[in-house]
Amino acid sequence: MARRALRFALLTWLLGACWIHVPGDRHRPRTPKVVRQSRPTGAISDQCYLVKESPALSKSELHERLALRKPLPERLALVPSHQGRSTLVSTRAAGAPQDARLLNFNAAGQTVEVSLFDCGTVQMLEKHSSLWRVLLSDCDAVLPGTLVQIYDTTPRVEAPESADVAGGVKTTVLQESESARAAVTWNGMNGFSPSNCPREADGVHVAWRLWNCAQGACSLLHEEEDDKALVCEFGSLKKGILTMVVGETRRFWIPWDAPDRRFGRPVPERALPAGDLVVDLTVLGIEREAVFDYKLSEETLKLVNARERSLPVLASRAVGVGIQVFAWAMVYLHYLPPQDLDNMVGFSDTVL
Predict the structure, then answer these.
(1) Which residue positions does the secretion signal occupy (predicted)?
(2) In this predicted structure, what is the pLDDT of residue 42?
């Protein structure tokens, strides 16, 4: 009986040693299911905090920024005014803010020229305080004569008081999705959540902007629309992303001391830089259980293998195997008949 227990303990140790030295692929191949994909229709919603909690840009404010040598806003949102919505001819633009980039502010002529994404350029003249009239337009979505208000979508370093907290990161909605949240279903460790939200093992298609806010003011670092299915390696952002639906845009404030800065793909392929950051992220599509079909790059595989064979990992696994062997030995000795235990003690004394 004692020899059988010893053999079993030795076999357990050998299996543990093989598991230590030969890290296998634990991913199961699955066929991902695409929920649907969309494209963002604008920078912000007319219900977001930028419209509700901040004034629209006026000509005098742009003059003041130039006089104080402050940077002009990098990104703008053109929000159609109630007085000018009848001139909009596109359902995409009807009531929806337009994402824009400031091209030129002519202080002498008092005009502003902006570029609308996927559309064209628009030149505007201020009609009265913070209300602008479109003079010239290359964009079919906005006709000359349209009345709009301009909002600075460049984030501030501090999140607004109305921001929520998800996973230790402050976040707020910039643009609501056209699709309503579906019925609530069980989402594993995250409890109940809408069925059309991402889950732990899902991949997402995203469009995102990264702002650097380390110097007291935010400046645009990078923006990208990723067509690949990303495994949800979003670190501090993950809690917030798991509550989003396709077409929704959220803004996340990442503090400098956030420990988990993974972003999208496994490191070293993508990670957020150090410092205070703001991330604007739009979910374009969801692929169910894409984590089981995701193929790591060669660089990531080398990093994973090196981590699997590192001394701390090997030591922790060896300790785990030792604890298992010790536990089995204690169980065996507890149920061992007294005569067999005496024989084992006598045999050990003879050997000594």
Answers:
(1) 1-24
(2) 56
Supply the mean pLDDT for the chain: 78
The band of 113, judged by pLDDT with boundaries at 50, 70 and 90, is very high
Contacts of 316-323 spanning 24+ positions with Cβ under 8 A: 317/16, 317/19, 317/20, 318/16, 318/20, 320/16, 321/12, 321/13, 321/16, 321/17, 321/20
CA-to-CA distance for 209 and 218, rounded, in angstroms? 12
The Cβ of residue 33 has, within 10 Å, a number of other Cβ atoms equal to 11
CA distance linking residue 337 with residue 221, whole number of Å: 72
- CA atoms of 351 and 337, how far apart (whole Å): 22
Helical residues (DSSP H) of 24-145, grouped into ranges: 49-53, 59-67
Distance CA(310)–CA(320), nearest Å, equals 16
pTM of the predicted structure, to 2 decimals: 0.71
What is the pLDDT confidence band of residue 133, given thresholds at 50, 70 and 90? very high
